[in-house]
Protein 1
Amino acid sequence: MLRYLLIRTVQTIIAVFAVATLIFLGLQMTGDPMENLAPQDMSDQQVAQLRHAYGLDKPVYVQYELFMLHMAKGDLGISFLSGEPALGLILERFPTTLKLVLVSMFIAIFFGLPMGVASAIRADGWIDRSLRFLSVLGISAPTFWIGIMLILIFSVNLGWLPSSGLSSWKHYLMPAFTLSLYRIALFLRMVRSTMLDVLNQDFIRTARAKGLAERVVVYKHALRNALIPFITVAGLQFGALMAGAIVTEKIFAIPGMNRLALDALYADDRPVIIAFIIVTAVLFAVINLVVDLLYAFIDPRVRYA
């Protein structure tokens, strides 16, 4: 296991530096950021001084070398707009996004997993058809539309819930449900599919032939084997939410790292954009590692050399 963790750590480091290289080259091809950042009344000499202060007047290969050296030290540059370390700005907003995503994933798993099991064990019945119809609605509804409708109903018309911020538990309800609705539908459909496949396996028929209670057969034998593909998708969805809750954070005025990254993208604040992508890449690598380790916990046959 130690050897496996060491190999995965090295792979993660290589992957992060590869992502950083691609992002650096991609941003270089978008042009000079000072064209967007410098005020229109600033003289050419002042723009040149500003470009020199950020090292943008150096050759590209020199900028890349300095960028890699600084990144190895944990320095991803200074924000063009705020003058603060870009990585610090992202990490400052990271807990806000993390709390929102954790609540959203809890809701999605809490509802999606049992609904998928219920749909599978009652395949083609009215419960199954009803749940599949709801899952189609959940997958089809756009996130921004869900968020706007929730604000109109529960904030504007009823006045029950606040429409912005995350200062109390009430603030989490609408944005968390907005993010979780698609995942509930996705988890429902996936668990149903994998459970139907597992329930038709020989070992399930053997367990039933032994006289085991249906609850034991479904939850101890079938569900446990169906969880491995579910964990893979759930892990990827967790990472996708951490890096893709931009619309929700914008609609509900949540000061998370996605909203910061969006503002940085509009302003061409490259250090913040790079910091956001690097943090996201590391997060996905950690999630994949955790998912792999959970495999061995769920299925003892899985071993890592």
Protein 2
Amino acid sequence: MEISENVSKIKYAIRDILISAREVEKKGKKLYFFNIGDPNKYDFDTPQFLKDALVEAISVDKANYYSESIGDIELRTEIVRRQKRLWGTDLDLDKILVTAGVSEAISMISGSMAPGTEVLVPSPVYPSYLSYFTFHDIKGIEYKTQETLDWQPDVEDIRKKISPKTRAILIINPNNPTGAVYSPKKVKEITDVAGEHNLLVISDEIYDLLTYGGSYKSTASLTDVPVLELNGISKTLLSPGWRLGWANLRDEEDKYAQLWDAMSKQSRIRLCANSPIQKAVAKIINNNMDFLIGVNKKLKERATYFAKRINEMEGLSAQIPQGAFYSFPRIDLPIDDTDFILRVLKETGVVFVFGSGFGTLGKQHFRSVVLPEIRMMEEALNHVESFVRKLS
């Protein structure tokens, strides 16, 4: 059987590094995992009220049926309430599409665009975007973010990268992989550029409630231009394995009706997202989320500690993350980022992700989560520091 050439182009550095890590583990090396943004692999857990809601959905509500392909109406109604409550935005109930995590939403967006379409993406960028775009013959054109300015987007570079084939600008805020939180002023500048050039804004907001620095506002609350927002429960509700997300389109003039129709068609051929989980999330998504105060406090402490330790190592430097789970340190050593990560892995057992897997500006960087307890970070980073001394 002949295999699509596009499959061979798919890369996902975050999980690809695990292949090498398992080989190292077979040799008896203790591994320290700093690669995947899954809080439940550490000392975080899904809130009990969400677990209870799922049990109720399965047993009492008997929500074990196929739901509507576009999503359970109760959940979509609660998403409308959520966005109004948090950000003051008004959504159309029929312009919310429930997906198996944001990843499926990215796939549907990519599969709806004509081959050759260009989408401007921040660099460094979450690699799923580049891989899905490549798979569907869409071109992800990288625009700069400014490391010395806490990884804020370079709006002038966005302007320079717009071409006759550009159809959308992607914003990831709070940001994966850098841990940046884009200022509302910067986001407004990007949406203004989109408005000038009649472009759709795609806004990935999966970490919207996980901020501990900077000032965050949802993109659609800052502009009247069409915005396709992506969100879900994986991160803010500490439930990545539940695989529930959504896309919502705020498009008052119906400029993107064809795009929405194309995404909806794809939702029908995969039948529906998980019905019991939709029913459970509908019951709690507008609950009091005070548990996140403690979550963000822990994340801030760990992010600050991680950056401090990295900045004490000669040849490495890092900005202090302001949101999400990540840090994206720079490597100023006589070694490229891929070799650095593989050698760190083999010699210390610490599993980071090479920065070049996150696009052009990712080179000579690496991504780390800041999720582990500080005592585990200390042990792992002591090993990394000893390794770095040998390279300096």
